[in-house]
Specification:
Two copies of one chain form a homodimer. Chain A has 152 residues and is of the alpha+beta class. Chain A has a single domain, classed as Arc Repressor Mutant, subunit A. In chain A, 47% of the residues lie in helices and 19% in strands. The first copy, chain A, has six helices and five strands. Chain A has helices at residues 6-22, 29-40, 47-58, 64-76, 118-130, 147-151; strands spanning 80-83, 88-91, 102-106, 112-115, 134-145. In chain A, strands 4-3-5 form a three-stranded mixed β-sheet. In chain A, strands 1-2 form a two-stranded antiparallel sheet. In chain A, helix 2 packs across helix 4 (64-76) and helix 3 packs across helix 4. The first copy, chain A, is globular and about 50 Å long. Strand 5 (134-145) of chain A pairs antiparallel with strand 5 of chain B. Chain A binds a DNA duplex (30 and 30 nucleotides) through residues 26, 28, 30-31, 46-48, 62-66, 68-69, 73, 87.
DNA sequence: ATAATTTATGTTATGTTATAACATTACAAT
DNA sequence: ATTGTAATGTTATAACATAACATAAATTAT
């Protein structure tokens, strides 16, 4: 899978800033740092990796709650997502555009891909309705191999 | 959501026994105990809950590896599934009938429902193909409220 | 039968992921 | 100035999971 371009990255960071500004969400220094660490990585990042990076950036040890709080903020506002199957976090490249987001995760190169297929969303929705079930959130994580890696 | 009947339960346990017998899989005492704990519960069970129950049953303390090994065996053979979004395990009521299994999990009553909808499976499959992606395993966990709980 | 091999379990320790609880700071509103 | 609120710092620990090595039990080969 290909990783994101610098311009996409910039645009996404900018969009998050805009969303925060217009919704009066405090995008504090730490929250911004954590977001940038996550979004700039094209692979899922673990909380304790973020912790190390934050500690390095600021030249002082940070603690788990600091990181988890920032992550919570970012998830709540749809700027990052958690991949439950691998206890890792990924940035969202179309923040606020959708609540749910599905993922393809390559086991080999570890690069992930967001995939917000409407027909898939519909299908899940129909399945829920068919079971008289009201969805509050959906975890869909597809693990496997991307084109590049399956060709190697 | 309604919980499973005793006869369904018996049938499932019997089926697992048969599968083990015909495939020469060692359904040892511990593995059987862990399986029964998981399948008899109509809610997802946590590993350390199983640990407590096993310790009680056998009147001696068990240790985490014992439980996790049994769980691994049961997952490998498709007798139980892990719900990554809540770090819990659930029994499978149609072992070996399918590799993938999707879940509806009620946040209120905590009862889960397996849902092996073929059209959903197809849709996921198509999404993967469309992204040139080869699936090895899929996590689909839909959290929300079941009919009973959303009416309350 | 018995030695060798494999499969499963016991045991200790530790690694990894996440949160509770309470103190402190920063900044805004009255 | 004082109170309120939102965010962060700090310590400790809870919750989830596995590594590594020892032992035992079952299987197979001789």
């Amino acid at each position: 899978m290909k990783s994101k371009s610098t311009s996409e990255l910039k645009a996404t960071i900018h969009k998050v800033e805009e969303i925060c500004k217009s919704n009066k969400l405090g995008l504090t220094e730490i929250r911004r740092q954590v977001f940038e660490i996550i979004i700039k990585n094209n692979k899922p990042v673990k909380a304790y990796e973020i912790l190390d990076k934050i500690s390095n950036i600021n030249n002082k040890p940070s603690h788990p709650p600091t990181v988890y709080r920032a992550i919570d903020f970012l998830i709540e506002n749809g700027f990052v997502h958690k991949l439950n199957s691998i206890n890792s976090f990924v940035g969202c490249f179309h923040p606020k555009a959708h609540k749910e987001c599905y993922f393809l995760i390559c086991k080999k190169c570890n690069i992930y891909q967001e995939c917000c297929d409407d027909s898939l969303k519909d299908r899940i929705s129909k399945t829920a309705i068919h079971n008289n079930f009201v969805i509050s959130n959906t975890t869909l994580e597809i693990e496997g191999h991307c084109l590049d890696c399956s060709q190697k």
